Amino acid sequence: MTTLPAPPKVKLGLVIDLDTCVGCHACVTACKGWNTQNYGAPLSDRDAYGEAEGTFLNRVHSYTMQPGSGPAQTVHMPKSCLHCDDAPCVTVCPTGASYKRAEDGIVLVNEDACMGCGLCAWACPYGAREVDELAGVMKKCTLCVDRIYNETLPEIDRQPACVRTCPAGARHYGDLNDPASAVSQLVAARGGVDLMPEQGTKPVNQYLPPRPRDTLGADEDILASFLAPVYEETGAEEATGFLGWLDRALEKV
Amino acid sequence: MKDHFDPSPKVGDRVAKTTCYMCACRCGIDVHLKADAEGVERVAYIEGNRDHPVNKGVLCAKGASGIMQHNAPSRLRAPLRRTGPRGSGQFEEITWEEAYETARAILAPIRETDPSKLAFFTGRDQSQSFTSWWAQAFGTPNYAAHGGFCSVNMAAAGIYTVGGAFWEFGSPDWEKTKLFLLFGCAEDHDSNPIKMGLGRLKERGARVVGINPIRTGYNAVADDWYGVTPGTDGLLILSLVHCLLKAGQLDLRYLAEFSDAPVLIDARPGATHGLPLKDDDGHALVWCRKEQRPRCYDAEDVEPDLNGAWAQDGVTHRTVFHAIAHRYLDGAYAPEAVAERVGISARRIRALAGEIARVAFEESWEEPIAWTDFRGRRHETMTARPVAMHAMRGISAHANGFQTCRAIHLLQTLIGSVEAPGGFRFKPPYPKPATAHPKPHCKVTPGAPLDGPHLGFVHGPDDLCLRDDGTPARIDKAFSWDNPMSAHGLMHMVISNAHAGDPYEIDTLFLYMANMAWNSSMNTTGTMAMLTDQRDDGSYVIPNVIYADAYSSEMVAYADLVLPDTTYLERHDCISLLDRPICEPEAAADAIRHPVVAPDRDVVPFQTALLELGARLGLPGMVNDDGSKKYADFADYMVRHERRPGIGPLMGFRGNGEATGRGAPNPDQLNRYIENGAFAVAHVPAEGLYMKPWNKAYQDWAVEIGLYDAPQPFLITLWSEPLRRFQLAAEGHGERQPPDHLRERIKATFDPLPIWYDPMEGHATDPRFTITALTQRPAAMYHSWGTQNAWLRQIHGRNPLYLPTGIWEAQGFREGDWARVTSPHGEIVVPVAHMPGQNDETVWTWNAIGKRKGAWALHENAPEANQGFLLNHLIHELMPPKGDGLRWSNSDPITGQAAWFDLKVAVEKCAPPADLRSTPQFETLDRPVPPGPDVVAWEVKR
Amino acid sequence: MHPAPSVIIFSSLSGAGFGLLVFLGLMPDPPRGWVAFVFFALAYALAVGGLLSATFHLKNKKNAWKAYREWRSSWLSREMWAAIAALLVMAAYAAALVFLDLHLAPLGWIGALLSLAVVFTTSMIYAQLRTVPRWNQRATPALFLTAALAGGALLAGRPVLSLILLVALGILQAVHWTRGDRRFAEVGSTLNTATRLPGMVRQFERPQTGENYLTREMVYQVGRKHAATLRVIAIALMAVIPAILMALYLVTDGAGLHHAMAGVAVLSHLIGVLVSRWLFFAEAEHVVGLYYGAHAGVARAA
Description:
The structure holds 3 protein chains of 3 kinds. In chain A, 24% of the residues lie in helices and 19% in strands. Chain A is an alpha+beta fold. Chain A has 2 domains: 12-208, Alpha-Beta Plaits (2-Layer Sandwich); 220-252, no CATH class. By secondary structure, chain B is of the alpha/beta class. Among the domains of chain B are: 80-151 and 435-564, Rossmann fold (3-Layer(aba) Sandwich); 174-422, Dimethylsulfoxide Reductase, domain 2; 719-752, no CATH class; 771-910, Barwin-like endoglucanases (Beta Barrel), CATH 2.40.40.20. In chain B, 24% of the residues lie in helices and 16% in strands. In chain B, strands 5-4-25-24-23-6-7 form a 7-stranded mixed sheet, with helices on both faces. In chain B, strands 30-32-31-34-29-33 form a 6-stranded mixed sheet. The radius of gyration of chain B is 27 Å and the shape is globular. By secondary structure, chain C is an all-alpha fold. Chain C has 2 domains: 1-128, no CATH class; 134-199 and 215-302. Chain C is 70% helix and 2% strand. Chain C has helices at residues 5-26, 33-55, 75-99, 105-127, 139-155, 159-187, 191-195, 213-218, 224-251, 258-282, 288-291, 296-300, and one strand at residues 200-205. Chains A and C meet through β3, β4, β5, α2 and α3 of A and α3, α7, β1 and α8 of C. β4 (59-66) of chain A pairs antiparallel with β1 of chain C.
């Protein structure tokens, strides 16, 4: 059913912290490892030891950002399916393979129904969908739907593989429809944003922007007060003045 | 609607917990195993072990791609004997019996006549306490791992100064620090703990300052980035020291009690000038403020005076701190004086100094941990200094790295943050002062073991490894006047010295996991030529090369005999307290690997092969009294070997299974490790969590679990006695004298206090070479002596040279352009890209992406072998000639650390090559393994 | 967007085929017998051939039949329905003309409407995509419909209508290009909105150093000069030359080589449509390209 369901009560998704992501790609290969073994066809790599082109459900982009003043910054941006509320990839699908779950808002592809036309990938502004050339079906992030409800896993591991592996803790998973959830509060506190809001997709996944950088010394006076010389600067034998101070200071210790 | 997928798939049939292998982190991993259609158990998924002390469940890109590492087509399949010329890659497969006998036939006569004719060097070996033990039993002085190429500046400067090092041997107090300074490119060692720690800092809103020419990786998330000019970090740090001294922002009590700042320095002219004054028992003397007389530093009621002075025999001995004040208050270290050189404005340098002062002293607190110090004094609290520092390769791989690293430790000590809550913390078995480490040994006796461990810490000229005629005793010239404090050896010099027969010729080069014929030597082309160079009679200049590796690396092609190793999931390994354990600041810990899948090839774990070879050679410790083989395999060694009575490779589950650290060998030990998740942990007692070098509770605990045999408290050594002793020798004092050409250099660089000197001076022989070229290891890539991993090589399959905005714009570069990069040693033509977030005097690329055609089972069109490139073609183990008739080594004069970050180049735009291939290109190697499959689609299905 | 030959051939040929069917369905006095057979065979060859070509684009053809399911939301599903309906209705209509010499006019009208619906649904597959701003404009269905009708008119030998439609096509094509050039900036997606980072944002590294499905499929970039040349060729072959030929035909009142001229006009038009459709894809910038460092120019050229 590729018409969108009524707004789900639970909207499971990711919150990705761009202030913390060091761009290590751990989430990329943890995702690849889990999803090549589970959910549908394996994620193939063609010409694997030559030019090598494989299917990945999560990729990390890297950008540089030049602010108005100060040095350029580097930002790493992991990106996978954002499980949009108004998912254009779902409605374009002719076969019903692509669908959004009513119970938790996860967008999935039923590979048994996919004809590999690629239209859903065209409809997605984020590049979240890739056809696996070997299997001929559309692959995308499932939010590890076969982990988060997996009864064979301990409770603590029922989270997406990318979140579980992220060394820096830059990825968070939860119900973004519940204002009391940890992820919602994080979004509120840190000013989480939608990617490409102008596309009208209403993504569930949120990105926390990098905090302001290179602010040290902006308030020069405060820090300068910590560096006031403890002796009179004579320009010549400075150590003499310093050692005089030292003697006085040692009296107090 | 019924789901079209299984929402609860079983990950595997069983989980095997073992230890990752991709870097020095050595995280715990859960390997999920599943039977395939044939019923063969295969690896289905690898994830981090949540209970593991190192990674607590997380895993990096490399660890999570372990499946592709384990199943790589480049795995060697059987022992190989060379059939074509060396370097061709032509081999025949032989049996292990033939392999062992071939090796024995080469090595036995060497041992009987002159064991030093064997050079045994191991690359990224994770069993150095074992391989060094083997080499010691063989009797050759020529053993080391790759630390001299990689880390020795950090390790040696740390251990000589504060009794422990950065990298995986120590750690910032992630939970408490409020200001974290990260020096140098730092994306490999201890990478997961650093990432986890950065995450914690971010969560708490602590400030992260990156001091690094390049803003990537950890520096990308740094709140403040100081894009320092390469090689000038030391000057920047000493300028911070200048600012803090001037403002009196110092922890005077800490300095007086726990560092050598109050120690009196001998002011008498002559052979002891500048050495710390000591009493007859060898205890350093301080000036006691209370009693106004010199006293032993560790007396219970001594009150060390930082500004003490002892007038004696017409001279006045003053304190180390007195010298520090005189040295660093000099205007030469003022921010304004250094700003241009370090590439950072005086305003920003002051801001950093001010922030260090503010956080260290304004945001401090008293941590409610009562403790007793080594003088026997009781303290009710510990004073927090929440400024932590960490430094890595960017500091290490310069010729001034040793002194720069010492400067960082000076800075930490001045604010009292080493081992204070919120500061830098040691991981057991550290702290351990240099004096508690062994000294290097080099006495060779034919047919007998070496007289002691190869590597260690020298404390003056008497400890150097020299032959009677004064020439170096070791093939790599470690512990010689060229680089006296080379605690890790100099792997990068072995092949060139062996080729030159300087200091002597060798017969056999035996290497393990060291890709010397490619990215693990300074100059790749030169090394390949030396390995294949022949004498007039057609014999090779280096007669025999034996090589052990798991994968078909470039180096395999240059061996005469190849011993194929297993992958990390197929063998036993021991991450030992005798070596480089996996400890955390709050616990000692070690770990094992154990075979979780059986090899499907005719391969043997290298350590097991080495034990077999040792037994065939009759090496002591490897055979029983009746000459039979002592250890069945490496697992047997791990359990039964004892270094000292009761102390073995593994700390946990000794004796009856309950003993930790000390205890008799326990035959069930490995099972206990496996049940426990392949590691063992011993927690530091609460009272001993901080201030470890001086903390009685910690010291006693360390003795109890066997880290030391007696408590080892010590003072932080700001004034280095060993350095001063070498300097004294250079000034003409003492029996052992340096060669004259080295005198001035030793005088200048072996300063007992941290100094800065320009490491690039000798490189810019031509005014064109003004730009520093660096390499960084991408977080998602292996050391190249792993293998090319089908998943990871898609992330970094080719590498451009990244240019800063200045060069990019000045030469009108555009996307897709190429450049010719030249150095005094060579030329490469490579693709370029623009990177605004980097120092303007710097270009860089990712390390070890370029591969040679034919290696690693890659296909002809692999981008690594076509567009990928190494900077090694521009680097050399020697400096360019400077006209004095000598060729100076491109290394730190103190430690011999390979200075591959001191690379000066010129960059000029050029037309893209017609074939869009980087140069130089080399002949395609014959493959000893078939090329990899076209398609990989990994799924274990029944 | 990657100009995949299968999709270009499909939309060009089937457009002309269904266009011809529209005319065959609406003609008050359609050909019959063998002549009808030839016309319908041509129309079906183009329409069905195009549809078959489109299936080459599918990576998992065995599931293609399931495309009937989602007509409520999916233009691609609707296209399938429309195509089947049009072909079936027109088959009955054609059979009556060819074999029974019977003109079932209402059936023809319905068939013509369905044929138009096929072209419209095809165009909406592209026009609906906000992610490809160049396609996401009202001129897209207008262009597809006009192209189909102009081709149909040419094939059906209706010079006056052809001339009018070709002129309209030329104008619409120019409008589509002009508007299309502005659409990306109008939609407002930039690397800043894609990353939500302020300041001058540039790609530092791709997520992978080689290509991936997305970069091959959606991050195709055609040189601006090259595109300009092709635009001239496309509009000349597709509209200007056939229109001139039609005008000549009308002016000379069919004297001389009119059959050959008609043939040249049809051929020129079809080649022109192919070039135009190649450009339709090759020039189309998918917003995902922003994430891969592409389209910075068009995003800013507001």
